[in-house]
Amino acid sequence: PDAPHPSSGARVLAVANQKGGVGKTTTVASLGAALAQRGRHVLLVDLDPQASLTFSLGIDPEELDVSVREVLLGEKEASDAIVVTDEAVHLLPSTIELAEAEETLATRTGREQRLRVALEPVAGDYDWIIIDCPPSLGVLTAAALTAASDLLIPLQCETLAHRGVGQLLDTVHDVRTFTNPTLRILGVLPTAYDGRTKHARAVLEAITSSYGLAVVEPAIPRTVRFAEAPAYGQSILRTAASHRGAQAYRDVADTLLAS
Ligand code: ADP
Ligand code: MG
User: Fold this and answer.
1) Quick one: average pLDDT of 172-199?
2) Which end of the chain, N or C, is more open, meaning fewer C-beta atoms within 10 Å of its C-beta?
3) Percentage of residues in the chain with pLDDT exceeding 90?
4) What is the arithmetic mean of pLDDT over 229-236?
5) What pLDDT score was predicted for residue 8?
6) More confident residue, 91 or 163
């Protein structure tokens, strides 16, 4: 059985890296679909005002009356906002209005705790809750790391990829000190990885050894199939189920289940 988060019942996985375009949203959608295919009950949380995860699961944020914004502001319950997608995963969706709510939240008491507290009443319904973080280290990412049992860091192994990792780990240190002492870093997940190039292997080795981070395996290969999938409102696990990119995410899901 999956080891439950002590306070909630579900494992809560934050997928974070303040660099944009590293594969956070793709990872959340694909792992969610893979875990659902393994029979797990999965809730995905879109915490990015760009709402890419919401879009990529075939939901138009403009047509939503309630989203994660109202939940964080304390106006609605999580259960009022959660929608069912056709990949068998549930979604707590985002909209562009979350951007302005983030500024409001910065002045509100309990801001880092709001997501954790909002998820508590629904956490018993799920085996896994996976949070897609925005490309910044602001209050939304702090709230995600406070709600999380585990952190996964998607990383593209290019020359400057290490620059943000130290800052992200500083944030993790603060979160462990002030809001969530038991947050566990699962490690980095290489995305768009070409293991045939010495360069990618060297960058991965440099980052993991200098920061003492584990590599979550297998690495996700670079393939154009990932860019195509959101246009269909489905993850690569549906649009190209037998592709090696889809298989890599199924294998990472199995790694998570064993972790
Ligand atoms: P983030 O959420 O970190 O900004 P995304 O998941 O949105 O990153 O990915 C950024 C872009 O890279 C998207 O166009 C996505 O389709 C593409 N992408 C993600 N993973 C891969 C991959 N393994 N190979 C090729 N392209 C990828
Ligand atoms: Mg994203």
Assistant:
1) 95
2) N
3) 81
4) 83
5) 55
6) 91
Question: Within a domain: residue 153?
Answer: yes
Q: Which atom of ligand 1 is nearest to the CA of 224?
A: 25
Task: Give the chain's domain count.
Answer: 1
**Is there a domain that residue 2 lies in?**
no
**Under 8 Å CB-to-CB from 167, ≥6 apart: which residues?**
18, 137
Q: Which position has the higher pLDDT, 234 or 179?
A: 179
Q: What is the CATH number of the domain that holds 44?
A: 3.40.50.300
Cβ of 192 less than 6 Å from ligand 1: yes
The DSSP output letter for 221 is B
Q: Which residue has the tokens 């999938």?
A: 229
CA of 74 to the centre of ligand 1 (A): 32
pLDDT of residue 2: 57
CA of 121 to the centre of ligand 1 (A): 32
Asked whether residue 192 is domain-assigned, the answer is yes
Strands of 90-92's sheet, edge to edge? 83-84, 90-92, 42-46, 128-132, 11-15, 150-156, 184-191
Compute, in angstroms, the gap from residue 23 CA to the centroid of ligand 2.
Answer: 7
Domain boundaries, position 82: 11-254
pLDDT tens for each residue of 129-155: 999 999 999 999 999 999 999 999 999
